[in-house]
Write a structure and sequence with these properties.
single chain, alpha+beta, 2 domains, 4 helices, 8 strands
Length: 174
């Protein structure tokens, strides 16, 4: 009986340790439009990468990795249509969360994110507007925020944001 209680306590402690670890491990979202790299990571434990296929969007896939397990998910692939039986008309559902309450919950959650890296490389296809924006972008550039103007027709966005599980939970429950 004591062995069973000991094993149960060890399992509970491991589960609590895992939850605490997930609360303090950073969550990162990375988007680089120049080389079409879109990814998110939860420490070294969980990660996902969107691999786009511009010629055939149905072949784009999401590569999901959890510890040693890996899976490719094809969210844009069309599924086969099944025969549908006659359904009763349903009443439209009312929203579970009111828009005002959703906004009051969503704004603190979005404010809890920290922008680690932000880079915009822009061409407006208007030489005069590019010339006006060039000194403005130069004045607004700092270590974490790079704003660039080019005259080559390149439009590019690189952003990396970070958050931690406890900050998300605190912002949502506040």
């Amino acid at each position: 009986m004591q062995i069973v209680i000991g094993i149960f306590l060890i399992l509970v402690l491991v589960l609590i340790l895992l939850v605490v670890l997930l609360l303090f491990v950073p969550v990162r979202v990375i988007a680089r439009s120049g080389d079409h790299h879109y990814a998110w990571q939860w420490g070294k434990l969980v990660s996902g990468i969107l691999v786009p296929n511009r010629k055939e969007p149905q072949k784009s896939f999401l590569k999901l990795k959890i510890l040693f397990w890996s899976k490719e998910i094809y969210p844009f692939r069309k599924r086969k249509a099944h025969k549908k039986s006659k359904k009763k008309k349903r009443k439209p559902r009312r929203s579970f969360i009111k828009p005002e309450r959703l906004k009051s919950r969503l704004v603190p959650v979005l404010n809890s994110f920290k922008v680690e890296h932000f880079r915009v490389n822009l061409d407006t296809d208007d030489y005069v507007l590019n010339g006006i924006l060039y000194p403005v972008f130069h004045a607004l550039t700092n270590d974490r925020r790079r704003l660039e103007i080019n005259f080559n027709g390149i439009v590019d966005l690189d952003i990396q944001i970070q958050n931690k599980g406890w900050k998300l939970l605190y912002a949502f429950l506040r």
